[in-house]
Structure formats: C-alpha cells, structure tokens
Design brief:
heterodimer, A: 250 residues, mainly alpha, 2 domains, two-stranded antiparallel sheet, 10 helices, 2 strands, B: 231 residues, Arp2/3 complex 21 kDa subunit ARPC3, cell membrane (chain B), Cobalamin biosynthesis protein CbiM (chain B), membrane (chain B), transport (chain B)
Amino acid sequence: MGAGHTHALYLDRGGRVHRLAPEVKIVAVLLFTIVVVVTPPAEFPAFAGYLVLLAGVAAVARVPALWLLKRATIELPFVLLAVALPVFGHGERIDWLGLSLSVEGLHGAWNILAKGTLGVLASLLLAATTTMRDLILGLDRLRVPAVFTQIATFMLRYIDVLADDARRMRIARLSRGYDPRFLWQVKAFAVGVGSLFLRSYERGERVYLAMVSRGYTGRLPHAESRKPATREWALAATLPLISLGIAVLA
Amino acid sequence: MDAQAMHIANGIVNGPVSAIFVVFAVAVLAVCVRRARADLDDRLAPMAGLVSAFIFAVQMLNFQVLPGVSGHLLGGTLAVILVGPWVGALCVSTVLIVQCLLFADGGLTAIGLNITNMALLGTAAGYLLVAGLLRVLPKNPGGLGVTAFAASVVSVVVASQGFVLEYALGGTTDLSLPWISGTMAGVHVLIGIGEGLIAATTVATVARVRPDLVYALRKFRKPVVLEEVAA
C-alpha cells in the first residue's frame, strides 16, 4: 500500500499528456467518446480517422501500442456477442464461407466492435496517463459531489487492504497444514469471506480514524491548488475537436 | 454476456436513449446524495468504502454460464443491508464510474444505462425486499442471511431486465426481445444464487460479530434496548 498508490493500468511516463490536469483529460475523453458514439456506423473512413487520432495521442503520451492492445482485451467478452449477431440476426442474408449471415447483424456487429474498441482505447489512454489520486482530484474539481469522491477514495485504498488480507489468510491456512486442491479452495474462501470482510473493515476503520485525527474532513488536501491553464484546455480540446472534424468531413 | 448485459459498452444502445438514462441516473443519484449525507457518519464512511471495494472485487468474478454468455455479481443487496439504500446506490455507482474511467470496463456514454440497471434498479429491488422480509423474519444472523439470499436473487434478475427495457427502447441491432429477456433472466437467476450465497455468508458473519455495523438492523435496535430497560 505504501508504494505510490497507483493502479494496475497506470504507466509511469513523463510525457506531455501525463502532465495535463486530470479534469481536462476526463472532459476530453468524454467528449471524444460522445462524438464516436453518435457517428453513424456506415461512415467507415471516420472510424479509421478516430483510430489514427488515438494512435497519435498514444504516441505523444509515449504509451506503447502493444501495451494498449494487451489491455484492450478487456472487451473480449462482448466481442463474442458481436460475433453472434450476424448469425442470429434477422433480415436479408448473405453467404460467406458457407455461413448464412444476416446483413443487418453484420452492421450491428461492426457498430459494437468499432465503437466499443475506440471507447476502450480512449479510456485506457486516460488510465495510463493519470494516477488514481489525480483522477479523484479531477472528479472533485469537476464538482462531482464529495460523497462520491470520498467513497471512491476509500474504495481504491481498501481494494489493496482486501487483497492483502485475503493473501494473509491464505498463508495462515497453508501454514496450518491446509493443502487445498482446485475446487476445495473455493470452500475455504466461501467460509472465510465473512471474516475477510470483518478483518478488512476493522483495519480500514483504524485507517479512517487515523485520517480523521490528522484533520481529514472528507476531501483530499490541495483540491484547489492548481487551476489548469487555458493552454491545457486548448491542448486537450484538440482530441474532441479533431474527432468532430473527422465526423463532419466523413 | 458480461460486457453487454451488465456492463453495457458504447454503441449497443443508441445515443438518445443513452442520454435519457444519463439524465434519469443523475436525477436519482442527486436524491441519493442528499439522503446519504445524513447517513454518512464516522462508522458508515469507511464501511461505504469497504463495501465498494468488496463489490469491485466480486464484480471481477465472471461466471461462464453458457458458451459466450457470462455475467457477474452485482453486490447491490449487500450494499443495501450494510450501508442502506442511499449510500448503497452511491457505492455501486462509484464502482461503475471507477471501472469505466480507470479500467475501461463499460462504455462512458453507456454509464447512465449501467448505473440505472445495477446501481438504481438492482439496489431498489433489493431494498424493497430486505425491508419487507425483515418485518417477518427473525432479526438475527440467520434471518438476515435468508433475507440477503432472497433479495440478491430478485435484485439481480430485476437489474438484468432493466437492460432488456433499454434495449427495447434503443437497441442498435435487431435481436428478438423475448429471446434476450429469457436468456438474461435465466442466466441471472444462476448468478443471483451465487451472489446470494456470498452476500448471505458475509452479512451473517458481520451480524454475528459486529451487529452494530448492519444498517438494515438499525431501526430494529432501539425497541430492544427499551425493552431491556423496562424489564
């Protein structure tokens, strides 16, 4: 927990995108995703343009393409559904490699695949260039209610507490001669899930009380320290603006 | 159907319907924020964080139910029992927003749909059932466990039917609605049973060791104290 409070998807590079204020990046990604989603699925050149645009941002942010692609596999479960659409869809059908595919289903599958992939890539770029703390600060400065940022702060911190406690309990079981195989591990976990929750709560409660006694009032400190310069907004605005341009031209 | 069913990705439901549900979700969450402020004290704040972390962890457990169709736990009922409906809805929403921003899970423009299904519909159904069942069942760890199990099953199925409604309003592809509805309900009954077992063991343990932490038991606590004083 002491090691920097980053998250699994953060990539520590000192690029220009990393240094942008978090709220600027959140707004830029949100607007970009909206432009992508409202683009009619048949505008194929537009989607190619979006992809080139994201590749450009990744290059400026010095995020390797392979790193992005590996993490983009998170969308695989719903790609499977997209594959099912042409097979089970209705309407006019075409034959392809001996399979009878629905044209409408093919369009639908493309729609989901293209928009989903672009959205995942944009979110991954945001996550790769922004630390967890900065994201929460960004949401805070975007006037997200303090209840939300408070819950999010504790949640992200307690994920580590939970994982560490689960590991300690497993080691404790193993060191007492418990030798679980395959599915029987699940049983021990299920029986222990309640006590895992309680142990973590009591640990987290101590952390919280320690924070309160050091002056924590529900917001992270320095929330107002740095207002993003107009230059930063302008720089980040290029992403949604160029994508809008592509959408209009295509 | 994990990403599509529970975590709707960008582009599955069309823009206007997504926008309507964003407005709907924001409006309901605003009410939750106002009601949650009264609830969020020194005991509930860390609990809300832990419940969110717990939900975050269990949402990563994906059940492969049929080939190509999987789903995951929601955790709304657990949140309702431990932190109450208002904070509970905020906990699940926070999980969804963080997953969307930080882990690219669920589309950014589909966030209104996802929050409506999992954080609002699921939690509301869970809350109604918990409130109803606790009137008749014993207020002990066992009764609470049974309540948690039953409410979990129902809330997960209700949440899955929320997707069917949204898909009927603005689905971008043409799949037959009864088929989707049936598949979703079937898969999510199984998921609900899994979720119910986890929620029941967790809640029962907490109720046994630290009953003061269980939000759902709060309103039943006072009369007990008064009786003891009277006796």
